[in-house]
Amino acid sequence: MAEGRPPLALAELAPLVSRAALQGDPPALGIVREAARRLARTALKVHDHGDGAPVVLAGSVLTSEGPIQRAVRDLLEPDVTVAVAGDGAGAAAWLALRELVTPVEAARLHTKLACPRAPLGDSVRRSRGRPSDAEHARDTRTSGE
To answer: Which residues contact 91 (CB under 8 A, 6 or more apart)?
Structure first.
């Protein structure tokens, strides 16, 4: 079925497969399982287990919350640490400027430019267990309370 199609054409189907898998569609769940198995197997082949470095998930399918990312994580963890790549443009900027600054400044900039950020609401809820005043105000305005 997918044979002969260019990879980009197949990649365009990923959101459809993910939505169908979330709805419990058996063929979509099978595609997710097989994709995750292949991705995890490839990552483990190239990962150096002795250096303590994480396996970094990159690309839209693996950096988005969804069934494929979850399935890959389930196959890799807890054997290896899994991280999710941040913004590619930010990482490229960091690579370009890291030679121009001190190692301490390079580390600080890496965190700002290349590391993924959780949405404010998620980090606030995780850290305090309740929404911030700004979130409450926003939620009140949008819900009509």
So the answer is: 85, 113, 114
